[in-house]
């Protein structure tokens, strides 16, 4: 996946209790760690086009709270307000806002990686 890190992205994500990597890590390191343990089917695509992976056993709120440094419930609400796209491996895709071009580019990469049709996936998004 070719998702890039924006200069506006959080400078560090707390990783101590989250995933046993200890201390703080950069957003790039956090995503790399999540992918290294097999998290790539589900997650968020934020407003800057960054893909934040999780898996079926890790709630989307957990990842949003780590990225946004908020409690899980508040983080999910803020992610929705920011227009993040929620991807679930069972085909549920939701967003509160229309996707911007960065998000569409990352969604295209996601579809290429997972062998799914980009246009069908784009059309399947339910807007909240």
Keywords:
five-stranded mixed beta sheet, 128 residues, disordered N terminus, alpha+beta
Class based on secondary structure composition and strand pairing: alpha+beta
| Amount of beta strand | 15-25%
| Rg from alpha-carbon coordinates | 14 Å
Number of helices: 6
Strands ordered across the widest β-sheet? 4-3-5-6-7
- Count of distinct structural domains: 1
Describe the oligomeric state of these chains in a short phrase: single chain
Largest sheet: 5 strands, mixed
Chain-averaged pLDDT: 79
Order of helix and strand elements from N to C terminus:
EHEHEEHHEEHHE
* Structure summary, number of beta strands: 7
Helix fraction? Answer: 40-55%
- Give the terminus-to-terminus CA distance: 26 Å
Return residue spans where pLDDT drops below 50 for at least 5 consecutive residues. 1-22
Question: Would you mind describing this structure in some detail?
Answer:
- β5 and β6 form a beta hairpin.
- This protein is α+β, with helices and mostly antiparallel strands and 128 residues long.
- It is 42% helix and 16% strand.
- A five-stranded mixed beta sheet has the order 4-3-5-6-7, sandwiched between helices.
- α3 packs across α4.
- The chain has helices spanning 16-19, 27-36, 60-68, 72-82, 101-114, 118-123, and strands spanning 13-14, 24-25, 42-45, 51-54, 85-87, 93-95, 126-127.
